[in-house]
Amino acid sequence: MPAGAVQVVEALRDAGHEAWLVGGCVRDLLLGRVPKDFDVAASATPDEVKRALPRTRIIGRRFRIAHVRFRRELIEVSTFRRGNVEGDVSADGVVLSDNVYGTLPEDAFRRDFTVNALYYDPVEDVLLDYTGGLMDIERRELRCVGDPAARFREDPVRILRAVRFAAKLSLSLRADIAAAIGPLAELLTAIPPARLFDEFNKLFMQGNAAAAWSLMWQYDLPEILFPLSKDEDALAQAALENTDERISADKPVTPAFLLAAICWPEFQRRVAPAATAPNAADERLKAAHAVMDEQRLTIAFPRRLSHFVLDVWRLQSGLERRSRRNPKRLLEHPRFRAAYDFLALRSQIGETDPELTRWWTDLQVEHPVERRPLHEAPRGGGRRRVRRGPRRGRALAESAP
User: Of 47, 92, 98, 112, which residue is the catalytic one?
Assistant: First the structure.
């Protein structure tokens, strides 16, 4: 148990407030997993948290929460909230406001899943379970707090959270959750694209991407979020499995590589008519930009990631030519390694000749390229010298008659 989390609970209680560890950290401890972070739920408002714990930063617009810093630990403190009241929900059932403070029991019953509605006192070693979450953990089952259809209408992102928790924690979805996902999945298109990007990272960048993807296809969710059909899934599946392997081996990963694989079939569809055109390279670039621009309307990938995708796609045509005339230019490209890995995955699913990948593998052995780590500054400390002109006073004196 991190000392910072215990100190936050103790400090808030000394100030006269209720405070409990809550949510994922309690769930993961009961499942025998190491929690990624520790959250606290309290009766204190964010301003009261700041008065009790000076090293606090208040963030958030939809609902203000407090971040308490303890050296390298960051503890998130949220105030007890209650369920929706009249005027907080749209005609479609979507929550418009989630800013009403409440009591501890009200806070438990407004949470999405029972396994996330557990409260733990690290000082007295007491567990509070208002919704039956402990029993669901023992049964390895994911169950909504309340009616799944109503909860998914309140916040459609809970559909993706259900998939993520089931894949990450090896939990089975209850039949009522499974029945509610299909009819309500289209509501995901109304979610702000920036929020869906956060959920994309949580789904696919934590080592359970392949399992989450497989579960998503049971409800046709990828077709709603991406320009992809089930029969075009092979490259995306290979990239997701590769990402899981790299995370397991503690190697660097980027969501841009997954985006390149998922959107590749749509890019290929766009460029096929112009493959033999005199300006084929320009048409490929236009098609790539069009695919990325349209994808950002659903999931707001930062432009730096889109540029990564464009480079990987553009380099594929160069890698496919297998010319020894000037391979050094490609080998030294900053995105060569990513483009090479992408080519290898295409070869793995039978889209390119495996001999092509072997040729580039051998060429890298023959012509090794030393790549500077991204965090390393360029030679000279990275500072550019600027030649300064004469001072204004001196220049005037020299120009005077």
Answer: 112
